[in-house]
Request: fold
Amino acid sequence: MALALRLALAAVLGVAAVLKVARSRESAASLSALGAPRAALVPLVVVELGLAAGVAAGFAVAAYVAAALMVVFAAALVRAIRRGEAGRPCPCFGSGGRVGWLAVGRNLALAVAFVALPWLPRLGTDGWLAAGLVVALAAVALLTVAVLALARELGELRLRLPPDAALELASEGPEIGERSRLIDAFALGPEARFALAVFSSDGCRLCRALEPAVAMLARDPLVSVEVFDEVADRQIWEELAVPGSPYAVALDVEGIVRAKGTFNSAAQLEGIVATGERRAHEEARA
Reply:
């Protein structure tokens, strides 16, 4: 088994070197992803071929050097990922792979295998169990690092995304900041801080789909919600110049219009209320 593993690891190094030569132009270009110059391709191929021969011959020093090389590759890949180079061609196997955490894990696994290679003939049952435990712990540590890095990337991506806001146009609906008689149609509870007018119509499929979101928001004691139908409440629609449905207007308890807009999701509907609250607080502080 030790011989088979030694030859397999030597083959990995040899194949990597051969693929780099076969795709020399692409491999040299992909070295930039790891921060290495194009001229480093030839020395790297020579080193890998030499290590492949040494590992196949059973030299322990060749296995240790190969392990160190894999660690260097893994560190270079981590730096490339942190620079935003994830997804670019990876020179590890002739630009056939991609820079990413999978490549980092592969190189670290190879490093562990190369380090263990000289010790395989000496390992007994307890040794194999210990080696398996070390590999398992290393895999858990690598997975933890990968999950944390992914969580960080997702967090940064969400911060870069624009907020999911409703479409608010000054030319549509009531004017922001003016008092509207619409507030008289609400039965404000003692805890209510805002009134939300939702304009809907029977022929609007999106309105039907968003009814659960409207109902959920209506259960909030701080928000009084009323739905105005396009036919039954046509006069109110015309008076407020409502452009269509679904549409919403947020008012404070004094009847001042604080926010408005066309919405197509529960998040956008809640965003209209949140915008109204923010504007009211800003005016109060001013």
